[in-house]
């Protein structure tokens, strides 16, 4: 899928390393820089790929997710906002509406080390029908040897949110994640509380856990690709660890049947406690990703 994105014809060359391209119904911003390759869909300000020079793709993107207007993309880093998970009210989209809305590129900058992109979403008639608040939401991506993501929400409201990152791994059977803390809510087992005794999460089957006391940094240890992905969390209360396992993977139309084998989600989140935004102080959620050989 990522090779497909970089082979797309250029619609507009914004700078020597930043271009607009189109994949089916969706407009993309593509970064082709000596230090980093990356792509972002304007729908959802959705980071699709990030690949520092000399590395394998760090993010996972489903090979059969549809690039259709208003349809959530499977993979990359979806922005879940202004709520995480199922909506309290029936008929509203799961994980909020920000990932299905058309954002616009507000600002861009580049240097010898990489590129910075800022996207903006403002309240509109469509969002007001789903959620009765005025807001301005920014998503900033600093893309280079590291990947820094920041979500910043302006207005007067409370939200839950997540940066729902899908990380590319060689084989989920050999993946361990550390730095999650001990206490968690197990969403596979009717939200019962559990304790991670040895501090390491593995993924033998479907796994969906909201960690309640996460450390500031989680590490994905990938035995198959012989690398570690470090995820530094900011302004969060929770980290979510998720993999659908074989049965759920087969049932998901936008994922290959064996898709679960090649990704793990380690999500920077505010789920157990809402975040408050005020006119004086915006709410934030941030994540910094680094990758290193083992």
The CATH topology name reads: Beta-galactosidase, Chain A, domain 5
Strand-residue proportion: over 45%
- Please give the count of helices: 3
CATH architecture: Distorted Sandwich
Description:
This protein is mostly beta strands. The chain has 3 helices and 22 strands. The longest helix has 7 residues, at 245-251.
Write the layout of secondary structure elements.
Elements: H1 2-7, E1 10-15, E2 18-23, E3 26-33, E4 36-41, E5 46-52, E6 79-80, E7 104-111, E8 114-122, H2 125-130, E9 135-143, E10 147-155, E11 157-163, E12 166-168, E13 175-178, E14 183-186, E15 192-195, E16 200-201, E17 207-211, E18 217-222, E19 227-234, E20 238-243, H3 245-251, E21 263-277, E22 283-293
Antiparallel strand pairs: 1-2, 2-3, 3-4, 4-5, 6-11, 7-8, 8-9, 9-10, 10-22, 11-21, 12-21, 13-16, 13-18, 14-15, 14-17, 17-20, 18-19, 19-22, 20-21
Keywords:
294 residues; mainly beta; Beta-galactosidase, Chain A, domain 5; eight-stranded antiparallel β-sheet
How would you sum up this structure in a few lines?
This protein is mainly β and 294 residues long.
């Amino acid at each position: 899928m990522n090779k497909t994105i970089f082979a797309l014809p250029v619609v507009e060359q914004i700078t020597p390393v930043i271009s607009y391209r189109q994949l089916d119904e969706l407009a993309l911003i593509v970064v082709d820089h000596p230090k980093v390759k990356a792509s972002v869909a304007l729908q959802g300000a959705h980071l699709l790929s990030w690949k520092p020079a000399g590395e394998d793709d760090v993010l996972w993107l489903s090979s059969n997710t549809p690039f259709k207007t208003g349809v959530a993309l499977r993979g990359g880093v979806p922005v879940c906002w202004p709520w995480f998970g199922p909506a309290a009210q029936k008929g509203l989209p799961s994980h909020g509406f920000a990932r299905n809305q058309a954002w616009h590129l507000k600002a861009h900058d580049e240097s010898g080390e990489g590129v910075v992109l800022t996207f903006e979403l403002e309240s509109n008639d469509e969002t007001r029908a789903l959620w009765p608040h005025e807001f301005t939401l920014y998503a900033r991506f600093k893309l280079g040897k590291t990947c820094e993501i920041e979500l910043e929400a302006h207005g007067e409201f409370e939200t839950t949110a997540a940066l729902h990152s899908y990380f590319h791994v060689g084989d989920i059977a050999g993946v361990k994640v550390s730095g999650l803390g001990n206490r968690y809510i197990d969403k596979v087992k009717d939200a019962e509380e559990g304790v991670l005794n040895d501090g390491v999460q593995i993924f033998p089957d479907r796994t969906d856990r909201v960690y309640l006391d996460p450390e500031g940094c989680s590490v994905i240890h990938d035995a198959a690709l012989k690398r570690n992905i470090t995820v530094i969390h900011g302004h969060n209360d929770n980290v979510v660890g998720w993999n659908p396992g074989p049965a759920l993977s087969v049932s998901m139309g936008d994922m290959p049947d064996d898709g679960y084998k090649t990704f793990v989600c380690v999500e920077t989140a505010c789920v157990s406690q809402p975040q408050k935004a005020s006119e004086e102080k915006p709410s934030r959620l941030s994540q910094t990703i680094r990758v290193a050989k083992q």
